[in-house]
């Protein structure tokens, strides 16, 4: 029977593992992506954009989307979604109107400025993906995306409903 490691031995072991930990690498990768998107969007004339607003802007359907449905899909509270909606309305990216068949539901739609934003964001993300593909190759990048989708979908099954 092996002797258990002391707490100090565990701390040394854990510290050695930190460099390649999935949590650390994910955090760095996410931050790099966010900074690149923010810088590129600012250069394209969107200096007032915040990464937290992307949860709404990236998921509005062309015909509009229901605020509460988007909150559920984004895994945020209705209150948090309402705050983002308010911010983006003030900046002129979106407008809201009553749902045609459900007066309790709020429809979110793009303004012309919002449509330009969405197009610019699409172009930025496409260039970002191309940069990643240049580093790891198209096949490996597609596998990375497939793996992320599987992990996200598996994790969503365990989240409580809002």
Automatic annotation (TrEMBL):
Coiled-coil parts of chain: none
Residue spans crossing the bilayer: none
Cited PROSITE patterns: HTH_MARR_2
Top-level taxon of the source organism: Bacteria
Keywords of the record: DNA-binding, Transcription, Transcription regulation
HTH marR-type domain sequence ranges: 19-153
Pfam families (alphabetical): MarR_2
PANTHER family: TRANSCRIPTIONAL REGULATOR, MARR (PTHR42756), TRANSCRIPTIONAL REPRESSOR OF EMRAB OPERON (PTHR42756:SF1)
Record-given protein name: HTH marR-type domain-containing protein
């Amino acid at each position: 029977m092996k002797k258990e490691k002391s707490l100090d031995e565990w701390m040394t072991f854990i510290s050695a593992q930190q460099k390649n930990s999935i949590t650390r690498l994910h955090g760095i990768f996410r931050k790099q992506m966010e900074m690149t998107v923010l810088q590129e969007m600012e250069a394209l004339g969107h200096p007032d954009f915040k990464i937290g607003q992307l949860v709404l802007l990236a998921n509005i359907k062309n015909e509009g989307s229901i605020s509460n449905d988007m909150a559920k899909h984004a895994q945020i509270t209705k209150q948090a979604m309402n705050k983002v909606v308010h911010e983006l309305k003030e900046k002129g990216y979106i407008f809201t109107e009553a749902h045609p068949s459900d007066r309790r539901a709020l429809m979110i739609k793009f303004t012309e400025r919002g449509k330009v934003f969405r197009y610019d964001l699409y172009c930025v993300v496409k260039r970002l993906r191309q940069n990643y593909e240049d580093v790891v190759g198209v096949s490996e990048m597609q596998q990375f995306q497939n793996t992320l989708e599987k992990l996200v979908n598996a994790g969503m099954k365990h989240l409580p409903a809002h």
